[in-house]
Amino acid sequence: MVDMRKLKEIKNNAKKYIELAKLIYADSRTPRVSKILLWIAIAYALAPVDLIPDFIPVIGSLDDMVIVPVLLYIAIKTVPKNVYIENYVQVLRK
Predict the structure, then answer these.
(1) DSSP assignment string, 66-83
(2) Cβ distance 41 to 75 under 8 Å?
(3) Is there a contact between 72 and 21 (Cβ–Cβ < 8 Å)?
(4) DSSP letters for 7-41
(5) Cα separations (Å) of 18 from 3, 25, 44, 60?
(6) How far is CA 73 from CA 6, 31, 76, 78, 94, in A?
(7) Apex CA 42: angle with CA 44 and CA 29, to 5°?
(8) Nearest to residue 94, comparing CAs of 10, 15, 26, 4?
(9) Quick count: other Cβ atoms within 10 Å of Cβ 30?
(10) In whole angstroms, what is the distance from residue 90 CA to residue 19 CA?
(11) What's the pLDDT tens digit per position in 74-89?
(12) Which of 37, 45, 83, 91 has its CA 20 to 30 A from that of 53?
């Protein structure tokens, strides 16, 4: 059975993470490589073409669930710590 509270928490966390990514992207102190990685992650998530086609059971969907978060993780890790923290605090205040 699906726990509705857990799904709501995941949804709220996803919204906060998207807001954080927007703020980091808009910040002029964010390195270009971080911005490029954010764009690649968004483009890959929205692109109709995948590295592994979705019609292949399990693995087809798994690539989307792995590649996009890994790209986002790397993009966030390349952001200076002070820029990340300042933008993270802004998201928490909302």
Answers:
(1) HHHHHHHHHHHHTS-HHH
(2) yes
(3) yes
(4) HHHHHHHHHHHHHHHHHHHH-TTS-HHHHHHHHHH
(5) 23, 11, 15, 24
(6) 22, 15, 5, 9, 22
(7) 135
(8) 15
(9) 20
(10) 9
(11) 998 999 999 999 999 9
(12) 37
pLDDT in tens, 46-74: 877 777 777 777 777 777 778 888 988 89
Residue in this structure with the two tokens 């923290």, named with its chain if needed: 85
Using the structure block, give the residue that is written with the tokens 């954010």.
38
Six token digits for residue 74: 């790397």
Tokens matching residue 2: 């699906």
Tell me the CA distances in angstroms from 36 to 49, 66, 85, one per residue in order.
Answer: 19, 18, 20
Measured CA to CA, the distance from residue 64 to residue 51 in angstroms comes to: 9
- Residue 2 — very low, low, confident or very high, per pLDDT cuts 50/70/90? low
